[in-house]
Amino acid sequence: MFAHEFMRHAYLAGTFIALSCGAIGYFVVLRAQVFAGDALSHVAFAGALGAAALGIDIRLGLFAATLVVGAGIGGLGERARADDVVIGTVFAWILGLGALFLSIFVSGSSGEDGTAAVRVLFGSILGLSAGDAWVAVLVAVAALLALAAIARPLLLASLDPEVARGLGVPVRALGIAFFVILGAVAAEATQAVGALLLLGLLAAPGGAARLLTDRPWVGLGLAAAIAVGSMWLGLFLAYEIDSLPAGTAVIGVATAVFLLAALGDRAPLRARLGT
Amino acid sequence: MGVSSPHLGWDLLADWEQLTTYPFMVQALEAGAIVAVMAGAIGWFMVLRQQTFAGHTLAVISFPGAAAATLAAIPVAFGYFGACVLGALALAALGREGRSGRSGESAAIGTLQAFALGLGFLFVGLYGGQLAGLEALLFGTFLGITESQVTTLLCIAIAVLLLLAILGRPLLFASVDGSVARAGGVPTRLLGVAFLLLLGLAVAATAQITGALLVFALLVTPAATAQLITARPGRGLALSVVLAFGVTWLGLGIAYFSPYPVGFWVTSLSFGLYVLVRGVRSLSHIRQQGTNAPHAAEAAA
What is the ipTM of this complex? Predict the structure, then answer.
């Protein structure tokens, strides 16, 4: 399998993308902002299609859209946290924009370019060049470093914002910073699993880790490990089974882990893990 | 739109005649009206119950259903309804877990949604799907609706609205204050499941027209706008229906005279309206505070 260059690139980029998605996904779940993550994944899709429609580099559109909207969602702050309706309303419109860009893009390009839209929607990890793979690694490492830098106060702010604010932690600024990092990770992960499946790589490992342990640092590591494991197994399955797309395989494995965690979410297992 | 290029004039009657020249447009307007009324009503409850994430997930789940039905060469409608009913039951089951509270539930919903999308992609791939097919599933075929589809849609809409009317009062009670309703003997759990099933039915019917991604726009935006304007249930529901109907017809009309898709116009119109109402509200809020302040100062003095 590793004789193929494209598989080596896929594993290299996939590992780091999964690592960053798993780690940040744990915080997303902890902060009950999965719906915001869902919105961001659709923003990634609209942004990429917009860039494609305008004929500029897709990655530029991805990063611009997710970073701006991410900062916007984060900036709405605590008020918006309970208010899924505001996020939903904004993102319904962004879906409409996506429809517009798709129609411009499809009517403006010939058939062979049409696959680009599918690649945006569902990922193209098996088609990465060496340069793409290294960019993915760099973005993921940068995101992980940024996350590590704010992890401790962010954890406090996520678990108990009142106490955090009392201790002088800048809860609001942390929320914005968190969403900017999430935006960067979302944009990069779109290449691996696609804009629409990105949510799975954020929610499933984080959700599973949260079910398996109550200790935050263990959970963080567990979420990252589950994401990387899902990526590895998913890529392997996609390689072995011809008609299975990589994005579907990765999300399928992550979902299975989440289901096992939910089913095993009973006393004996929790006792064994010492939580 | 491919036909002898329609042009918009100031004569509204002539414009309307142009709009209804072609049967496909009449059917689109009929289907749009039915879908808008149903989505406006059920969306109002969805927003009230803060189940927008669940609603969006149901909308997305319709996509693998349709793709699977296409693959199995059975009528696509079965796929839509089967997937959405299954999805609603799955969401209801996930809600019961609830040990880790809201965050655990939303993680489960998100996982379900991503998995459904992954399956949909697999089915489209197995079918050897063209992009055109994928685009239709995701963004709808508003302009390719047959008469029998309109009839089916009407039957489903009537059934959904009737059931909603029957459940309306206890559902409203359970949505506004769950614990009081439970204490008052209202079966809130059962109502929650019933509502998810109704939402699933409405989403499945709507998704066939608007596509999996844009159902959500009709469900959430008019309802959110209506709830900004009034908190009273009767008026809010009516307003939500009227708004949904208005943006749908206006969107269809504009799309007919423009090169851009219906979905873009419908979402943009409803979002513009939402922003407008929000702006007006916060403006009047500020003004109210401005006029109240001197009174408050007088009272204090």
Answer: 0.83
Tell me which residues of chain A, numbers 146 to 185, contact chain B at a CB-CB cutoff of 8 Å: none
Does the structure show a pLDDT above 70 at A268? Answer: no
Q: What is the DSSP letter of B213?
A: T
Query: What's the CA gap between B202 and B216, in Å, rounded?
Result: 11
Q: CATH number of the domain that A211 lies in?
A: 1.10.3470.10
User: What distance in Å separates residue B205's CA from the closest CA in chain A?
Assistant: 18
Question: Does some domain include residue B96?
Answer: yes
CA atoms of B59 and B156, how far apart (whole Å):
17
Please judge whether A197 and B121 are an interchain contact, meaning their C-beta atoms are less than 8 angstroms apart.
yes
Mean pLDDT score across all residues of chain B: 82
Domain count, chain A: 1
User: Into how many domains does chain B fold?
Assistant: 1
Is residue B86 one of the residues assigned to a domain? yes
Question: What is the rounded average pLDDT of the residues A149-175?
Answer: 86
Assign residue B69 the CATH number of its domain. 1.10.3470.10
- Residue B299, min C-alpha distance to chain A (Å): 31
pLDDT tens-place string over residues A214-246: 888 899 999 999 999 999 999 999 888 888 888
Amino acid identity for residue B206 in this structure: T
Cβ pair B77, B257 in contact under 8 A: no
| Domain-located, residue B72 | yes
Q: What is the least distance, in Å, from the CA of A129 to any CA of chain B?
A: 23
- The end-to-end CA distance of chain B, in Å, is 68
Which range in A52-61, A157-166, B14-23, B217-226 is most confidently predicted, on average pLDDT? B217-226
Task: Find chain B residues with C-beta within 8 A of A255's C-beta.
Answer: 111-112, 114-115, 118
> Hey, which residues 69-98 in chain A have their CB within 8 Å of chain B?
84-90, 92-93, 95-98
Task: Name the pLDDT band for B127 (thresholds 50, 70, 90).
Answer: confident
Report how far residue A109's alpha carbon sits from residue A244's, in angstroms, rounded to the nearest whole number.
Answer: 27
pLDDT top residue among A166 and B291: A166
Domain housing A173: 5-272
Partner residue opposite B115 with nearest CB, options A89, A115, A252: A252
CA A49, A54, A57, A61 dihedral sign is negative
Q: What domain range includes position B288?
A: 12-300
Residue B4 within a domain: no
- Give the whole-angstrom CA distance, residue B102 versus residue B257: 45
Chain A residues in contact with B227 by the CB 8 A cut-off are: 85
- According to the model, what pLDDT value does residue B208 have? 82
Give the whole-angstrom CA distance, residue B243 versus residue B100. 37
Q: Which residue does chain A place closest to B261, by CA atoms? A: A100
**pTM of model > 0.90:** no
**Interface contact B131-A114, CB threshold 8 A:** yes
Cβ of A118 within 8 Å of Cβ of B115? The answer is no
Beta carbons of B131 and A194 less than 8 Å apart? no
